[in-house]
Amino acid sequence: MGKTIVEIKESLEARIGKPLRLKANGGRRKTIERSGILEETFPSVFIIKLDQDTNSFERVSYSYTDVLTETVELTFSDEQNKTAVSGQ
Q1: H runs (alpha helix) in the chain
Q2: Measured between alpha carbons, how far is 11 from 57 in angstroms, rounded to an integer?
Q3: What's the rounded Cα separation, in Å, for the pair 30 and 38?
Q4: Cβ atoms within 10 A of the Cβ of 66, count?
Q5: Comparing C-alpha atoms, which of 54, 12, 13, 14 is closest to residue 32?
Q6: What is the pLDDT of residues 34-83, one digit of tens each?
Q7: How many C-beta atoms lie closer than 10 Å to residue 7's C-beta?
Q8: Whole-structure pTM value
Q9: Buried b (16+ CB within 10 A) or exposed e, 28-65
Q10: Which of 46, 71, 77, 81 is the Cys-Cys partner for 66 at CB 3.0 to 4.6 Å?
Q11: Do 61 and 43 contact (CB within 8 A), yes or no?
Q12: Nearest CA-CA partner of 61 in 80, 38, 30, 78
């Protein structure tokens, strides 16, 4: 969706409070998949509140650069369609 950090940040700010699915590179060929809600955005990072049923901790934060470099992929699921936020 966004091709610059500013576009990614604006796209995420418009989706605060929406449920999402997170896929992140965990290093050493590991992929981490979690679900939660986009809770808050800051100038350099955004916060995701994770589902407590499936995760051992409450919140995670990532930078907009992580989305731009495709280290993190966010998929927002609405009632009608799914929208992925990525750097490409």
Answers
A1: 5-13, 64-68
A2: 26
A3: 23
A4: 19
A5: 54
A6: 999 999 999 999 999 998 877 777 999 999 999 999 999 999 986 444 55
A7: 15
A8: 0.82
A9: eeeeeeebbebbebeeeebbbebeeeeeeeeebebbbe
A10: 71
A11: no
A12: 38
> Quick one: pLDDT at residue 52?
80
The first and second tokens of residue 86, run together, are 């990525």
Q: Do residues 59 and 42 touch, judged by C-beta distance below 8 A?
A: no
How distant, in Å, are the alpha carbons of 50, 51, 53, 60, 69 from that of 1? 23, 25, 30, 22, 13
At 3, the pLDDT band (50, 70, 90 cuts) reads confident
| pLDDT of the residue at 79 | 44
